Amino acid sequence: YPHSLQFYLDPPTENISLVEFESFAIDRLKLLKAVENLGVSYVKGNESYKTKLESELRKLKFPYKALAEDDYEARRKDHISHFILRLAYCQSEDLRRWFLQQEMDLLRYRFNELTDSLRQKFLEHINLSFEPVSEDLKNELANELCTSTPGFSMTKVKEQMFYMVGLADAVDLFRARRVFIKGGLAYVPLKDIDAIVLNNYRAKLSKALALTARSLPAVQSDKRLQPLLNHLSHAYVGPDYSLQKSAGKISLDQIDALSVKSFPPCMRQLHRALRDSHHLRHGGRMQYGLFLKGIGLTLEQALEFWKKEFIRGKVDADKFDKGYAYSIRHSYGKEGRRTDYTPYSCMKIIMSNPPSQGDYHGCPFRHCDPELLKQKLQAYKVPPGGIAQILELVKGMHYQLACQKYFEVTHDVEDVGFSLNHPNQYFTESQRLLSGAREVKKEPSNSGNSQPKSISQESKNLSSAPTSSSSTVAAAELEELEAYFTED
Ligand code: SF4
């Protein structure tokens, strides 16, 4: 790896263990999540943004200092992990878009951190080598550069490096009349070179993602990799909410009040629908049932809760006991393979199984029409300013950040103080706040990785990350459970 920065043109060819495969992928995912969070919380490229991103890179052991020569391991990890996530995130348009955006932001940050000479070396390395304008030539053309480059004073022209770029690479700047042209070359200031590099990177990465998607069937036929890749694309890097630490701490008659105070909108909506129609289709039962289990409903409570509600509708007690009760026991690990099922993470809810007509599962920020979402938020008494901010985040496809904003306005805190990845995390944080157990943070923070956890949600830390076989079994088991729930 000649540079700390890469365009990821050649895939890795070495053999790696499945444990390393998974741990690299999880770390990159954490990094990209941090990039997303920071990009919304701070102005991209300002000092706080840069400091926080550098600290994430250091923490996760990715190359953070362009000058460091002895970071072979970090560069290797950077290279391999990028390609693993490429495999996981090429599978749908939404995933590709998200991955591309975060990788672009990461590259922009890293490129701008390079020293002039390293930048030059990197440009040569990726065949985008542009000749710097010499000091003499710059002085000679200072007037032209100043008048043809918007936002540039004479002093700024003197300070910044300019590069001579072929018109084909600078076509956007040229079209927008933002650049001085002479002798078939555009004189591009350093601040615009990153745009050229990024455009180039975007084109290459989009194409690579499309090509990867085409070869996906071959990769997916590998039984070890397929479940891992699917888990990654629904990636979740927080605590495991299947562990019932709070089992039995909630009584059934608290649920209505809790659904208003402490449920995230996805679960609040499911609860309301269940109360209104005394039924939920299987997608809703899966999503809501496992969430309730995660917040502490015991099996006995769950059976009572669902039965009471369903028999108020069209299902009689006998039908409930014969069909639905089995699937509830199954989700608590008391039937079939006896697996303790894990509540769904936001990514899983957002990225898979979109709701159709008559369904109430999914994430309202992702799956609701904006007008309907607005009405819902009004009904939830979110103030107009908050609604506008939430809708803006939704427009930028930052669904979990929109949910964090919802948390802030409904809990009257300035800063949510955590990075939302899971509906059960939302609930726990809300309860901590409402019970006074959490100190309200005033400083904006990006705590996206404060609770690192394996994707397969079975290990306490990365060193004990599960092997692919556990992921395989988990995936197979989940399918089995979903099959039980298919009865509407
Ligand atoms: Fe639920 Fe997560 Fe969507 Fe919030 S972001 S509504 S917690 S799925």
TrEMBL record:
Annotated GO CC locations: alpha DNA polymerase:primase complex
Domain of life: Eukaryota
Keywords: 4Fe-4S, DNA replication, DNA-binding, Iron, Iron-sulfur, Metal-binding, Primosome
Pfam families listed in its UniProt record: DNA_primase_lrg, DNA_primase_lrg_N
Residue ranges of the region described as Disordered: 435-473
Residues that coordinate or bind [4Fe-4S] cluster: 266, 346, 363, 403
One GO BP: DNA replication initiation
Similarity comment: family membership: Belongs to the eukaryotic-type primase large subunit family.
Record-given protein name: DNA primase large subunit
Annotated source species: Psilopogon haemacephalus
